[in-house]
Design goal:
The chain is built from 6 helices and 4 strands. A 4-stranded antiparallel beta sheet has the order 1-2-4-3. The longest helix is centred in the first third of the chain and has 16 residues. The structure holds zinc ion (ZN). The site of zinc ion has 4 residues, from β2.
Length: 163
């Protein structure tokens, strides 16, 4: 998409987020843009029906996740977004993914870059992020573009916990 479309898309998707996450994701996007990337929020809030479809199709492992959070009156209050590299969507380089993980961490969020990996591979990623070695060779977990609020478990979020 053009930069104008991408920015419009990102602004729209941010409206579906919990206000605290919204500020953090806006900062992460600005951070990545400052390094020359073109981050695109692919998805923010998800309806229960869409979550079920993704579960049935094997794209998620949970029936209720951070994307499904709602306010007390049932409005979208997503605690997660998926951020793609608009220049190579769904084929993100490990450099983009490591920089996304680094910026997410700096803003109190976590990504799925190491989800499902062996401890050794998780340690390699942790070292690369800590040392800002974004050219490191890494194994990539199953949901590297997923960014969610840190410090709250899925179960806590489902029970109403918010940042
Ligand atoms: Zn996600």
């Amino acid at each position: 998409m053009t930069d104008e479309q991408r920015k419009h898309n990102n602004a729209q998707k941010l409206t579906e987020c919990n206000p605290i996450l919204r500020r953090k994701v806006a900062a992460i996007i600005a951070d990545l843009e400052g390094h020359g990337w073109r981050p695109r929020i692919q998805e923010a809030w998800r309806s229960p029906a869409r979550q079920k479809q993704l579960l049935d199709d094997g794209f998620t492992k949970v029936r209720w996740g951070m994307h499904n959070a709602v306010t007390e009156d049932g409005k979208p209050d997503s605690l997660a977004v998926d951020i793609l590299d608009d220049d190579q969507p769904n084929k993100e380089s490990s450099k983009f993914l490591l920089m996304l993980a680094s910026s997410a961490k700096a803003h109190g969020c976590v990504t799925g870059i190491d989800w499902g990996l062996a401890q050794e591979d998780r340690d390699t990623i942790r070292s690369a992020v800590a040392g800002r070695d974004f050219d490191a060779t890494i194994e990539v977990g199953w949901d590297p573009c997923h960014v969610q609020i840190g410090g709250i478990s899925v179960q806590e979020a489902r029970n109403g916990a918010r940042p």
